[in-house]
Inverse folding.
């Protein structure tokens, strides 16, 4: 079984990396893109069944709850 | 009185801290390996700078799970002095021993330079030889020093004097220009509610002797000795 964990900065937290990417888009003419926010993606393999372990991985290791949030996509 | 300097693979300021303490305080100091499960016998513990375990996930994210950190949590709960410098500060926030988080510098660059700090709380075990408002000339060297806390947390730490050091200009003003990394309210260092845990991004371990460009960092180590003597 596979899961994908997506970690992003909370919407209220400034994202200097996304802002830097966004700023560079004007020179490519991609002027309709109004915002870019950067995050992280983790592909996780697990034995069937124990979904709680992925929840704990996402919550306790992959995310800093002060600044980030996560969502899990199951495959 | 014995100081301990934690050694985590990837951290490279451990020897700087060791020699700073030895040279300034003349007190016994020992390294503490990250796999140690006890910090018995130590009176103060330093978490030095660097990139603990490579800092690949987030700064300090994996270090908080190291065996020595459970011992340090208990040590801090019992009132032991814990001092995190740079990566050590990042580890302390990740471990929940200090509030907030340290994010990527707003300018996206690793910044390595001397700058001025203003002492906003001289009534801590780490600043008792200083006076409120005193300026220190101490270097930074980091890419993730951008202090962030949610509004409520920020209000709380500002409200009870837990911001110990702020980035300021040579006149002591906390201006946007004096802020090297985008930290909220120019915050460079904070203490926990009990006052026995300090984290700061600037490096007193790189400024404890005039030959290094400044000796101002020594005041912090001297304050720690004072605090421990008074116990």
């Amino acid at each position: 079984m596979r899961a994908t964990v997506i970690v992003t900065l909370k919407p209220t937290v400034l994202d200097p990396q996304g802002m830097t990417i966004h700023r560079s888009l004007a020179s490519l003419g991609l002027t309709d893109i109004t915002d870019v926010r950067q995050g992280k993606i983790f592909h996780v393999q697990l034995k069937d069944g124990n979904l709680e372990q992925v929840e704990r991985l996402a919550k306790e290791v992959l995310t800093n709850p002060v600044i980030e949030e996560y969502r899990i996509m199951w495959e | 009185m014995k100081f301990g300097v934690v050694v985590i693979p990837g951290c490279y300021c451990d020897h700087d801290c060791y020699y700073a303490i030895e040279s300034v305080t003349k007190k016994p100091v020992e390294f503490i390996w990250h796999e140690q499960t006890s910090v018995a016998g130590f009176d103060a513990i330093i978490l030095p700078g660097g990139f603990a375990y490579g800092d690949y996930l987030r700064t300090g994210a994996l270090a908080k799970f190291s065996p020595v950190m459970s011992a340090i949590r208990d040590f801090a709960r019992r009132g032991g002095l814990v001092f995190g410098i740079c990566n050590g500060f990042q580890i302390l926030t990740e471990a929940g021993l200090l509030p907030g988080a340290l994010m990527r510098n707003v300018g996206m660059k690793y910044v390595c330079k001397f700058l001025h700090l203003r002492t906003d709380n001289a009534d801590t075990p780490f600043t008792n030889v200083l006076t409120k408002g005193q300026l220190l000339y101490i270097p930074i060297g980091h890419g993730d020093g951008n202090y962030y806390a949610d509004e409520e947390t920020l209000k709380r730490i500002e409200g009870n004097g837990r911001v110990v050091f702020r980035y300021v200009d040579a006149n002591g003003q906390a201006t946007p220009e004096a802020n090297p990394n985008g930290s909220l309210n120019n915050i460079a260092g904070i203490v926990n509610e009990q006052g026995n845990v300090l984290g700061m991004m600037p490096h007193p371990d790189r400024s404890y002797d005039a030959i290094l460009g400044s000796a101002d960092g020594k005041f912090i180590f001297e304050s720690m000795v004072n605090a421990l003597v008074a116990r």
Observations:
- Strands of chain A lie at 2-9, 39-45, 68-74.
